[in-house]
Task: structure prediction
Amino acid sequence: MPLYEYKCIRCETRFDALRAMADADDPIECPGCGGAETHRLISLFSAVGDEGVIAGAGDSCGSCTPSASCATCAAKSAR
Ligand SMILES: [Zn+2]
Result:
């Protein structure tokens, strides 16, 4: 079963729970205050992955390669 991370809206406790994928968005009781007002957080793995992609893109425009910048980006870095 995958591990999901939840956060309580009432007391802001963060906690993990092993749940079936089908139950991931079902209400779950907060271990801190016993309330059911919790929401699921984005998985840590995908968050780190997204950040890596953004950092790796740098200031290139998408048509540049790591060894050669396009005219637009070459002019930008020359400034
Ligand atoms: Zn709580």
User: Anything to note?
Assistant: Residues 46-57 have pLDDT under 50 and may be disordered. Residues 60 and 69 are 7 Å apart (CA to CA). The beta strands are 3-8, 14-18, 38-40. Helices lie at 44-57, 71-78.
